[in-house]
Here is the input.
Amino acid sequence: MQFKATRDFVRQRAQVLEKFRSPARFEEVMEGMNVAARRTAEAPGPGWDCAIHWHEAERRFTARMQEPAPGETLLLSLASELADAAITLDFQDRPEGGCRVTATADISAHTVLARLALQSLRLVRGRGEDRLTRLIAALGRP
Here is the structure.
């Protein structure tokens, strides 16, 4: 399943990218989402072991940030028993100044529970896109 979202920032691309690349910012955003994130690898490809309480159980997953196109694209990969996700973040300069971030999340469910959760996001119009937009805003804020 795929979700897309876009967010415009008034700051320049280099400033926005600096926030997205920051392992500390990722950890702060995860904490705000009630996700415990413990860093397991440092830059340039930071990684985390994460856990969230969901549906009466602690769910563990790993996260890894890579920059396949330096200064243009970041890739956040998430993997768990329930599902895998690849979130591609593309950064473009805006003609009037600032930066636009376009996120594309490709999610593949491995269990019935995960498939039902994804279907719920899809059926409630815009819910998946809204969550992706909030993630982009939180990672890129000053």
Observations:
- The beta strands are 2-9, 35-41, 47-54, 57-69, 73-80, 83-93, 99-109.
- Residues 123 and 129 are 12 Å apart (CA to CA).
